[in-house]
Amino acid sequence: MATTKAPDAGRRSDRSRRAIHDAALALVTEQGYRRTTIEGIAARAGVGKQTIYRWWPSKAAVLMDAFLDLAGRTAEDAGGAPEPDGAASSGGSAPGFPDTGDLAADLKTVLRATVDELNNPVLEAVTRALTAEGIVDAKLGAEFVQQLLDPQLALYVTRLRAAQEAGHVRAEIDPRIALELLIGPLMHRWLLRTLPLTHAYADEVVDYAVGGLTPRA
């Protein structure tokens, strides 16, 4: 007599989570954060509303988890791709941040990639939603910073410290403050939508910032 294999509850759970993540990201992109609801996410994912509430306490929590999952998948995809020309690591910086010995060129590579991410429709919609919600929800805001922003900012700090050790950046510079000279202008322009966020603008930001970081005669 043939035996019937019991369904894999863990695999079914993973499929449901991925479906909920994809549904949340799609709805926020299509109709914005305010119009996205738990009911809408459940319907789009093909699951019951109670399934979502069993795993997440709120719509914001669903979106945060979905965005972290998306960021992880994006990083994995990038890790499997070849390094950009000239971006091979020389061993002085953390993985994911180029160290060619040319600080300005390395920063331009990373800031250009940041511009592309901020201009990506899916990433932009979710990042704006989480940024706005994090202002009024302190717990969500702290989680967004801790899980997503801080690990990225740590890469800048490591690269700038390597530049200090190589004599390319003044010894008294605080890398944590210096990186804000690079990221702050991009986020300001992106948040306010005052002017286009472009590669050319990112390059100028690097040129202005590095000019103030390098040793003076």
From TrEMBL:
Residues 14-74 form the HTH tetR-type domain. It comes from the Bacteria. GO terms for molecular function: DNA-binding transcription factor activity; transcription cis-regulatory region binding. Residues 75-99 are annotated as: Disordered. Residues 77-96 have a biased composition (Low complexity). PANTHER family: HTH-TYPE TRANSCRIPTIONAL REGULATOR RUTR, TETR-FAMILY TRANSCRIPTIONAL REGULATOR. This is TetR/AcrR family transcriptional regulator. The lineage of its organism: Bacteria, Bacillati, Actinomycetota, Actinomycetes, Kitasatosporales.
